[in-house]
Amino acid sequence: MSQQHGFTYSTVTGYFLQDDNSTVAETFDFISKNLGLLEREYAADVLNPGDKRTQWQRFEGEVNRLNDEAVDGAVYKVLYIGRHGQGVHNVAEKKYGTAEWDRYWAAQEGDSTSYWVDPHLTDTGVQQAETINAFWKHQLAVAGTPAPEKYYCSPLYRCLETANLTFTGLDLPADRPYKPVVKELLREANGIHTCDRRSPKSAVKNAFPNFTFEPSMTEDDELWSATERESDQDLDGRMKSLLDDVFELDESTFVSLTTHSCAIRSLLRVLGHREFRLVTGGVIAVLVKVVRACDAFHDGKNP
Predict the structure, then answer these.
(1) Active site residue 251
(2) Residue of 60, 62, 93, 188 with catalytic role
(3) Does the annotation mark 188 as catalytic?
(4) Are 13 and 76 contacting, i.e. CB atoms less than 8 angstroms apart?
(5) Catalytic member of 84, 89, 260, 273
(6) What is the pTM of this model?
(7) Which runs of consecutive H residues, i.e. helices, occur in 70-207?
(8) pLDDT given at position 293
(9) How far is it, in rounded angstroms, from Cα 171 to Cα 139?
(10) pLDDT at position 5
(11) Could you write out the DSSP letters of every residue in 103-132?
């Protein structure tokens, strides 16, 4: 029995391939698999017998039904969670191997050929983001995938680049423009690794003027530590705070999050989703049930 505040989160399974334990993350191709959306019938389909809507359009109707019929203050959200494209540091880790990277190189600012403090995308990373942009163009025009209503992004350079390359130039609905918001809490697991040290706020704002930055974001990175790496428990707490902060004020149903590998693994843990690791440039869609937690004692089970 523990006192809970904010919101509780649970993944609603049975709608996406990535919910199923038989789906292998390492070989999963979200582009060819329609973001993993299962081909199935929904309870909401009876409201439109014989219609010719796409699977995504019918899924949107199903999510609307879930929200219309929800009780006890529950709401249902669809999160499009994307990992940044390949960064300079990803190449360096591959060059030295993960063990040696973690032992020594991750704490350095670079080597004789590369600099990886708050690194930029490589040419491959740019191509990955451009591929996702083309994918979204198809999803919006052909598959009928609902566009995100809000766009949130890590403050690290590789994510800001990825988000802009992914969502700029899309034929978005007039009421869902691409107006990205930087969330400090959405950054990668923090500490020791210099690739996770943020650039000064003024420099990032100058490079990405189309982003909205939180007033609370400091000029210099006051969260990164050169001597201590953030634990999984602390990271999960941070991601829980991030989600609570977003959903306290944002009533959007379809939400985009552009972030990092460890952050995504943490988000999925907080959401009650099975482990599902994304490659650079990967995207996962998750249907989430969100319930406001009372300032009362719960037994740890979903309400």
Answers:
(1) no
(2) 188
(3) yes
(4) no
(5) 84
(6) 0.94
(7) 88-96, 98-103, 123-138, 157-167, 201-207
(8) 83
(9) 11
(10) 65
(11) HTGGGSSB-SS-B-SSPPB-HHHHHHHHHH
